[in-house]
Automatic annotation (TrEMBL), chain A:
Leader sequence segment: none
Residue stretches spanning the membrane: none
Family: Belongs to the UxaA family.
Name recorded for this polypeptide: Carbohydrate hydrolase
Domain D-galactarate/Altronate dehydratase C-terminal: 143-384
GO biological process: D-galacturonate catabolic process
Domain D-galactarate/Altronate dehydratase second: 6-131
Upper lineage: Bacteria, Bacillati, Bacillota, Bacilli, Bacillales
Keyword DNA-binding: no
GO terms of molecular function: hydrolase activity; lyase activity
Natural source organism: Paenibacillus selenitireducens
InterPro entries xrefs: GD_AH_C, GD_AH_second, UxaA_altronate/galactarate_dh
Alphabetical keyword list: Hydrolase, Lyase
Pfam (any one): GD_AH_C
Coiled-coil region: none
UniProtKB/TrEMBL annotation, chain B:
Entry's Gene Ontology BP terms: D-galacturonate catabolic process
Keywords: Lyase
GO molecular function: lyase activity
Gene3D superfamilies (UniProt xref): 2.30.130.110
Protein name: D-galactarate dehydratase
Source species: Paenibacillus selenitireducens
InterPro entries: SAF, SAF_UxaA/GarD, UxaA_altronate/galactarate_dh
């Protein structure tokens, strides 16, 4: 299938979902946003801990993550809820998101006079915007327009042996069809960066990759601690992973074998087509939220230990090579490739099965995380709270 | 980069340069473990219990050996490791991300 069903946005991009997004600019607006989204179906809010007492690059990162999430083509319209005195400026945010041509409205809690009035105003706006989105026509989307993120979390030894290499096959299929794949998790290429660097299309891309890793290692050295125990995590270690190097070498196969054509900062827009690297911590929610802000349509997420998390505006497909976990956490997991480990499922067959699931989910099939309402969101912080 | 699993194998060797194999089932101490190496079916007797997903040593390693899996270095042996032993955090340490050994610490 070379086309999927989706929605064409005013700027020419295509979405595979049609969300009405409610964004708090600051933690103080979270409850108002939650009440609005609870009252109008087909509405998602992204409560977070940030938006105030931030400066410099850290403030910019929070702004870009919120703006990018609003700009994601899976989002059709946006309501921004501001307290009125925070550092993230709601009107600048509305302008950045509005450049895509989608409707954006701002509610200021201090200006309208408290939570109840802000919630009431928000519900009225949400009902109107939702009615508009429900009129959006469904159109054919060329598969070459699809951008996916590849992520692993709650890894065990099966991740490196089965689910990641199988996802790599699916990544190669999408790249071959002209699509885009984003791999991330800077901490989880430590020890495997020479393998990734050898695949970079230019020396500049390799330099950028090494720069991202060096920046992380300087921070780890500043902490004066062994990364083991934090990453690999206690669960990774229980699953058989001994060091970050071993985890990284198992991780990188999930992006397949295509050349790495570019590398970009956390939450920046994906610059083009092909295989890209985005700087990010390995932390599941921060990484997937950064990918969503960069504009990916969905994330393929491998796990060995099992994890329930989804994302606010993009479907997350869970893939495992651990047979026991596929059975025990079946309500959270979409694709089982564990038969690779008893010799009855080949690597290419497993990759094809994942590719089929990608196409179906892009075409509208709900993932387990979507069915259960998992809408996790979190922003990577790089500065102190003032 | 991962090798494909042969039916009947108890452990997977990813690359022929590897010092370890990964257990495909829970292995008890004393069990004979079958694995494929350079197209030969080879056996090793486990000296420790090796849980599913954990590593077994395929060769004797001296302290300080750079232990290989995926054909790449995954860490350093902190003590001598005999063939058949469980290879994990008790006898291998990471070389990277070691802020605890940093000059700046």
């Amino acid at each position: 299938m070379d086309h999927i069903k989706g929605y064409q946005r005013a700027n020419g991009e295509y979405g595979i979902r049609n969300h009405l997004l409610v964004i708090p600019t600051v933690i103080c607006a979270n409850q108002v946003c939650n009440r609005i989204s609870q009252s109008v179906s087909g509405t998602v809010s992204i409560p977070h801990q940030h938006g105030c007492s931030q400066i410099g690059a850290d403030k910019v990162r929070t702004f870009e993550t919120l703006a990018g999430t609003g700009r994601n083509p899976n989002v059709g319209a946006v309501i921004i809820v501001s307290l009125g005195c925070e550092v993230i400026n709601p009107h600048e945010l509305a302008q950045s998101i509005g450049e895509t041509g989608k409707p954006v409205e701002v509610i200021d809690i201090q200006e309208v006079g408290g939570s109840v009035k802000a919630i009431q105003k928000g519900i009225e706006i949400a009902k109107r915007l939702r009615a508009g989105l429900d009129q959006e026509p469904v159109v054919d989307v060329p598969i070459s327009e699809l951008r996916i993120g590849v992520k692993c979390g709650g890894s065990d030894a099966t991740s490196g042996m089965a689910s990641n290499p199988a996802l790599g096959v699916a990544s190669d299929i999408l790249i071959a069809k002209g699509g885009t794949v984003v791999i991330s998790e800077t901490t989880e290429i430590i020890g495997a960066e020479h393998v990734m660097a050898a695949r970079c299309s230019t020396p500049e891309v390799a330099d950028k990759l090494y720069h991202f890793i060096e920046r992380f290692e300087v921070e780890i050295n500043r902490m004066g601690a062994d990364m083991r125990g934090g990453n690999p995590s206690p669960g990774n270690i229980a699953g058989g992973l001994s060091t970050i190097e071993e985890k990284s070498l198992g991780c990188i196969s999930k992006c397949g074998t295509s050349p790495l054509v570019g590398a970009f900062e956390y939450a920046e827009a994906v610059p083009g087509k092909g295989l890209y690297f985005m700087d990010s911590p390995g932390n599941d929610i921060e990484c997937v939220s950064g990918m969503a802000a960069s504009g990916v349509h969905l994330v393929c997420f491998t796990t060995g230990r099992g994890t329930p998390t989804g994302a606010a505006v993009i479907p997350v497909i869970k893939i495992t090579g651990n047979e026991r976990v596929f059975k025990s956490m079946n309500d959270n997991l979409d694709v089982d490739v564990s038969a690779m480990l008893n010799g009855t499922l080949g690597l290419n067959e497993a990759g094809e099965a994942i590719w089929q699931e990608i196409v179906e989910v892009a075409d509208g099939k709900e993932t387990k995380a979507e069915i259960l309402g998992h809408q996790e969101f979190s922003i990577n912080r790089i500065g102190p709270t003032l | 980069m991962a090798g494909e699993v042969v039916a009947g194998a108890d452990a997977l060797v990813v690359d022929e340069k590897d010092h370890v194999a990964t257990a495909l089932k829970d292995i008890a101490a004393g069990d004979t473990v079958h694995y494929r190496s350079k197209d030969q079916l080879v056996t090793v007797v486990a000296l420790d219990p090796i849980p599913f997903g954990h590593k077994i040593a395929l060769v004797d390693m001296e302290e300080g050996t750079h232990v290989k899996k995926y054909g790449e270095v995954i860490g350093r042996a902190t003590i001598a490791i005999e063939r058949g032993r469980h290879v994990h955090v008790h006898n291998v340490e990471g070389i990277r991300g070691r802020g605890d050994q940093s000059q700046e610490a």
